[in-house]
Amino acid sequence: MEFASNITAAALFQQVLVGLSRTTILFIVSSGLSLVLGVLRIPNVAHGSLYMIGAFLTYSIATAAGAGAFGFAVALLLAPLGVALLSFAAERGLFCHLYEREHLMLLLFTFSMTLVFNDLVKLVWGSDYRSLTAPGFLQGSFSISGLPFPRYNLFLLVVGPLVAFGLWYLTNRTKIGKIARAAAVDREMVGAVGINVSWVFAATFVIGCYLAGLGGALVAPTQNITQGMDHTIIIEAFLIVIIGGLGNIWGALLGALIFGLTDSLGILIWPQFAIVFPYVAVVIVLLFRPKGLLKSTW
Question: Is 103 exposed, middle or buried (0-12, 13-18, 19+ CB in 10 A)?
Answer without folding.
Answer: exposed
